[in-house]
């Protein structure tokens, strides 16, 4: 007769539960993999599959009962680690989408909005367009596989235990939130400059010809110039996106390793 002790059962549960919790946290917070368009059973199945594959590669786990108070602390640490790693990547997508939001607002497309199921809210058309470009580029460079690789390596660089992400790493993650505004403004700056010149020219034209209907001329002109400048600028965004995502992968890896060195906008 096969007998299983409580210690053996707790050890088996710990090998699977703690990695599974970190994996679920990063899948819930990272872009693309955490999209609401992906069914929840698929996410759970992927997380369970990754946990089963990663479990044999884990370093020795602490001998802690998963149901004890210390076990709950370890469980919360894994949730925080996964959320922090996923959030560091989501910042980049939010910054790129903000560039589209700023561009669309200046072009006069601020009213052109539709429901985005990923964000569960209304977003501008240009912002959604930039977000789709970032998603396609992320897939083109196998970013989703890179995230899974960094996740698997994080169990070695930041093993399961009572020690989680340190204060310096959290501070660097909070400071990284500045990228949402600075990077978004940098990406939108060429279109904003062209539209500023257009608006100044329209203002001079209105002063020279007061009978001109500025609303009938200004809106299609700013919209056309904005789209034209976007078509010129987007091909030059490819190396910039590549550099941004490379820096983001490096930051995520260093975040899991506990030593973060970030110098700002790449």
Question: What profile does the largest beta sheet have?
Answer: 2 strands, antiparallel
SSE run: HHHEEHHHHHH
Major sheet: arrangement of strands: 1-2
- The beta-strand count equals 2
**Structural class assignment:** mainly alpha
Helicity range of the residues?
Answer: over 70%
Shape annotation: elongated
Query: Helix segment count?
Result: 9
Strand content: under 5%
End-to-end distance: 62 Å
Rg over C-alpha atoms, rounded to the nearest angstrom: 24 Å
Number of domains: 1
Low-confidence stretches: 258-266
> What number is the mean pLDDT?
79
Can you tell me about this structure?
This protein has 266 residues and is mainly alpha-helical. It has one domain (6-257). Helices cover 71% and strands 3% of the residues. The protein has nine helices and two strands. A two-stranded antiparallel sheet has the order 1-2. Helix 1 (6-29) crosses helix 2 (40-54), helix 5 runs parallel beside helix 9 (237-257) and helix 7 packs across helix 8. The longest helix is centred in the first third of the chain and has 39 residues, at 69-107. The model is unreliable at 258-266 (pLDDT under 50).
């Amino acid at each position: 007769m096969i007998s299983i002790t409580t210690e053996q059962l707790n050890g088996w549960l710990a090998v699977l539960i703690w990695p599974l919790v970190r994996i679920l946290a990063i899948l819930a917070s990272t872009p693309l993999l955490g999209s609401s368009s992906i069914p929840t059973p698929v996410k759970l199945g992927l997380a369970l599959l990754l946990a089963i594959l990663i479990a044999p590669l884990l370093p020795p786990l602490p001998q802690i009962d998963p149901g004890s108070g210390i076990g709950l602390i370890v469980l919360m640490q894994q949730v925080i680690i996964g959320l922090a790693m996923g959030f560091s990547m989501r910042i980049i997508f939010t910054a790129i989408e903000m560039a589209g939001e700023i561009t669309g607002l200046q072009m006069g497309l601020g009213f052109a909005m539709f429901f985005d199921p990923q964000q569960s809210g209304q977003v501008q058309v240009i912002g959604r367009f930039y977000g789709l470009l970032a998603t396609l580029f992320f897939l083109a460079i196998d970013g989703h596989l890179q995230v899974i690789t960094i996740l698997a390596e994080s169990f070695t660089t930041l093993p399961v235990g009572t020690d989680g992400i340190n204060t310096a790493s959290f501070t660097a993650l909070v400071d990284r939130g500045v990228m949402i505004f600075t990077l978004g403004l940098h990406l939108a700056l060429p279109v904003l400059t062209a539209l500023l010149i257009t608006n100044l020219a329209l203002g001079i034209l209105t002063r020279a010809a007061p009978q001109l209907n500025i609303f009938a001329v200004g809106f299609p002109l700013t919209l056309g110039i904005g789209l034209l400048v976007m078509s010129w600028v987007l091909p030059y965004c490819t190396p910039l996106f590549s550099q941004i995502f490379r820096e983001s992968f490096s930051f995520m890896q260093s975040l899991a390793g506990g030593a973060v060195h970030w110098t700002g906008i790449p």
